[in-house]
């Protein structure tokens, strides 16, 4: 009997370790595991989110060539995409536990982190998360194109505007919001946009203004110059042959559908 008890005790301890430790880890850190791979991406998720990974990998792979070609880069490794089951676990993972509900995607170095499109929270939807995943991949591609040093010099409006532009996150509703805010007050200058804190940037419609600026630059001067600017943001005047303030004025006229004087 004694031996039998001992065997049972060990079995209980083993059972405790196998059942409890993974649960505790799940509560504290990521409980995500590698659940799917595509040609250029490795997906980490819970079992519950495996069913959304085909859609995420399709949209990422469909946009991969265009974005890497535009930035003239080759990424040698698979990009990790971590899909969190809810906003709470995602916000903890990005070290921002009380983030507002609109914070649904991020990248840390060259890893892409996002909340599951199946559980997008109160602001976003399944469809908008399918754009967010491209947006975050664009940030990673830009990081590969210009490296740590230039990324820190990249103006916020250019970084955020370009990511939204490639992700197809500009639409008539955003154009209208930028246009009507401009008739109410003078828009922030590009350097004011660049100096706003992350939270203020959201509050002053920084995302809408930024993608509008990038759209203006692309429509007026083309993507080749835009890519040159991303790679050498300090040289805006040489690249466009105009001072930044002149470009800012042209942008305001563009948004208001006014011809240049
Ligand atoms: Zn962004």
Description:
The structure is a single chain. With 261 residues, this protein is an alpha/beta fold. It has two domains: 115 residues, Zincin-like (2-Layer Sandwich), CATH 3.30.2010; 102 residues, no CATH class. 61% of the residues lie in helices and 10% in strands. It has twelve helices and five strands. Strands 1-2-3-5-4 form a five-stranded mixed beta sheet. Strand 2, helix 2 and strand 3 form a beta-alpha-beta unit. The termini are far apart. The N terminus is likely disordered. Bound molecules: zinc ion. Zinc ion binds next to helix 4 and helix 5.
Give a summary of the structure in a few sentences:
The chain is an alpha/beta fold. 61% of the residues lie in helices and 10% in strands. It is globular, with a radius of gyration of 23 Å.
């Amino acid at each position: 009997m004694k031996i039998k008890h001992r065997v049972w005790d060990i079995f209980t301890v083993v059972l405790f370790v196998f059942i409890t430790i993974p649960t505790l880890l799940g509560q504290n850190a990521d409980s995500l595991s590698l659940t799917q791979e595509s040609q250029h991406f490795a997906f980490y998720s819970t079992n519950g989110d495996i069913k959304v990974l085909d859609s995420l990998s399709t949209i990422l792979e469909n946009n991969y060539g265009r974005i890497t070609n535009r930035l003239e880069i080759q990424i040698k490794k698979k990009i990790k995409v971590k899909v969190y089951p809810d906003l709470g676990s995602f916000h903890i993972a990005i070290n921002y536990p009380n983030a507002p509900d609109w914070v649904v995607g991020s990248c840390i170095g060259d890893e892409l982190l996002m909340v599951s499109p199946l559980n997008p929270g109160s602001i976003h939807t399944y469809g908008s998360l399918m754009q967010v995943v491209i947006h975050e991949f664009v940030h990673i591609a830009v990081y590969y194109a210009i490296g740590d040093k230039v990324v820190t010099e990249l103006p916020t409006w250019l970084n955020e505007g370009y990511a939204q532009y490639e992700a197809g996150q500009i639409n008539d509703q955003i154009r209208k919001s930028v246009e009507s805010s401009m008739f109410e007050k003078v828009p922030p200058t590009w350097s004011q946009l660049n100096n706003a804190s992350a939270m203020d940037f959201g509050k002053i419609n920084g995302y809408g203004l930024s993608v509008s600026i990038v759209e203006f630059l692309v429509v007026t001067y083309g993507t080749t110059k835009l890519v040159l600017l991303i790679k050498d943001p300090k040289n805006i005047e040489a690249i466009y042959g105009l001072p930044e303030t002149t470009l800012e004025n042209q942008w305001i006229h563009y948004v208001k559908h006014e011809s240049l004087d």
